[in-house]
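cron nightly-structures :: item 1 of 1
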Amino acid sequence: MEKRRLGRTGLEVTLLGFGASEIGYQNVALPTVARLLNSALDAGLNLVDTASCYANSEELIGAAIGGRRTEYYLMTKCGHSAGLPFLEWTPEVIPRSIEQSLHRLRTDYLDVVQFHSCDAGTMRNDDLIAALVTARDRGHTRFIGFSGDGENAAYAVGLGIFDTLQISISVADQEALDSVLPLAIAHDMGIIAKRPLANAAWIYSRSGIGSYERPYWERLRKLKYPFLRDESPTAVGTALRFTLSVPGVHTAIVGTTRPYRWEQNAALLTAGRLPTADFDAIRRRWRAVSRPDWSGQR
């Protein structure tokens, strides 16, 4: 699979990374996680993203592929180790959270530790930022990043401290393309797209849609992209290729609980970047239909 340099970190990451929220929140059994992650590593994936609040995802990753640590880059997030929506933004908690993640993930270092959905007001606490920088200086993490959206993401990027930015980008979530990404690109940040498939919200019926997918489902009903009328694999491929064709995006984090789904998604990218005409058509439709309150979704 194609790799891209993750901004100023210099890490060469695969176009697709694995997002671990589903395996934690959906209580996936360890044997299934082991098959899922090991098959993905065997197929070439080299980026795994999780968070201290994703239930037992860190423990599952450590148990499943901790023995293959040199084969992949590992990112986690701090700030919610007790689980969402509990906030733990103090300089004392940050190092404890990172140490806990290291233990769970069965590693002695992380490649990126990210502040998780931290608001701009909280980030004005210099001691809090210093706690994350200290973790990097002590070798607990190679780089530091921010995961979030909207004004908070813009503030984090403007600080010039974070090496990476993880932000929502998809056919149903394009706020960041104009509001945050230009500044992140100017800072040579590694840009990681989260929710790059808009949760595949278009596949759900009105009665079957959940609260997590609903905002994108409602947006897509208004956007009415022609490509969503195609068969599912074609629609998934177009949506994913759109996200990875956004200027500045280096990788897209996709979660799954199904072994070999990562390889299926990777196969959809063999066609390369989305043709310029198709990309521009999606952008024009977004500009014509989107509303001011269609902000980035956490």
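cron nightly-structures :: done
Strands lie at 3-5, 12-14, 16-19, 47-49, 73-78, 110-116, 141-147, 164-168, 190-194, 249-255.
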